[in-house]
Amino acid sequence: MSSSTSRELSRRERERQMRRRAMLDAAQSVFAEKGYARATLDEIAERAEFGKGTIYNYFEGGKEDILYAIFDKTYQEITKIISETFATDDGERTLRDRYHDLVVRGFEFYSNREDILIILQKEAYRMGFSDDTDRARWFHEWHERILSAACPAIEGAIETGEIRDLPATAVAHMLIKNLDNLLVHRSLARRSHETLDECTSAVSLHDDPNAAAEFLTSMLFDGLVTHDAPPLPAPPPERST
């Protein structure tokens, strides 16, 4: 194959990728605005400025294939962020440091991707709990893959005594889901055009990723109980029979 032919194929592939990306971007905005069930392929095609037939050339399964492509791309990006942030090749950084960085990167990732966050909340949970076992399995496997990206760093923190000896996957779930919930709260406040309530506005979580990271990291790693809190009451004595 000549070099000119190779360049032509490369150019065509780049154009194809750009078209595919434009279709996904259009679908994201339509799904976020109307929900998957109410969105139509005609609306997606119109917003992407392609014919519906062209959409089918890229996504044979139509609307559902597009939705899965959005999920797949987003989950890959999230897994990459977690893998990079929780990388264990830097022994100087604690798990607490890594989690702080993850919160900052999570806020930065979704700062211009609120459509994605809305779709994940609306559609991923619905499809993940579907009676369709293939759908449910697909989402479960991605969920496990995302959690697994954090587990080596958590296991290392357990070995060094930084955190308690707890199941690494359960710890990963707790860390990541608390970040998810904070991001959702932020998105809901933005969409309602209201000031964040006192639970978050006091620490500037709306527009300050570092403040959000300090808040969430402190809450999860230091806990809610103060060091001088009174001890828990002793359990009542067992009654003799």
TrEMBL record:
Residues annotated to bind DNA: 40-59
Entry keyword annotation includes Ion transport: no
GO molecular function (one): DNA-binding transcription factor activity
Highest taxon of the lineage: Bacteria
Keywords on record: DNA-binding, Transcription, Transcription regulation
InterPro entries assigned: Homeodomain-like_sf (IPR009057), HTH-type_TetR-like_transc_reg (IPR050109), HTH_TetR (IPR001647), Tet_transcr_reg_TetR-rel_C_sf (IPR036271)
Residue intervals of the HTH tetR-type domain: 17-77
SUPFAM superfamilies: Homeodomain-like (SSF46689), Tetracyclin repressor-like, C-terminal domain (SSF48498)
Matching Pfam families: TetR_N
PANTHER family associated with the record: HTH-TYPE TRANSCRIPTIONAL REGULATOR BETI, HTH-TYPE TRANSCRIPTIONAL REGULATOR RUTR
Protein name as catalogued: TetR family transcriptional regulator
Annotated organism of origin: Longibacter salinarum
